[in-house]
User: Fold Deaminase reductase from Corallococcus macrosporus DSM 14697.
Amino acid sequence: MTGAKRPYVICHMIPSLDGRIVTKGWKLSERAMGEYERTAETFDADAWMIGRISMEPYAGKAKVPARKSAEPIPRTDFIAKRDADSYAIALDPSGKLTWKSGSIDEEHVITILTEEVSDDYLAFLQSKGVSYLFGGKADLNLKKVLEKLRKEFGIKRLLLEGGGKINGSFLAADLIDELSILVAPIADGSVGTPSLFDAREGRGPVRQLKLLSAEPRKGDLVWLRYKLRK
Assistant:
């Protein structure tokens, strides 16, 4: 169990047998991909989180206009909506996602920024009804981000869904409580593509796991659940 200060974090992914996570070219069946969503639903999470690159297809493309006002916007969190049934969270430190709206399939959007983003971008987010939280001046403090998500939005269970660098950063910060992986019946064989955890060059932040369950699923998948030993 986590303390009440932050959500319980479940890293939920669908890697190949050799740990790769870029599914393009795998030709997985619709049944197999459906299993990913069905297993995710069993966690009854309040929110899901992914990185900027993974979020781009969901965010859409809109123009960020220049502001007419020269008055600076304070670097304080902006909460557009607190009472959503579910939240879609993007880690976007530099403020590059150009949101079409403040929701994805009725899930309220929260984006996580550093204080280095421009005033034009903050004004743009406010105009779209996108909530934003600051996670640090130049770099994100992930523990601080999680604590804000719990305090401001009441998020208790969060699905962390990649990419590899985001997962690796959470692993290195010891902020993952549970690992849920649907191992795809694929041997990818690629070199240099994102893997389940890409924390840093060289030796990574080794973590010990305790197996909770192993279950065959439709589409020749195997669902493995682990608790991270603290």
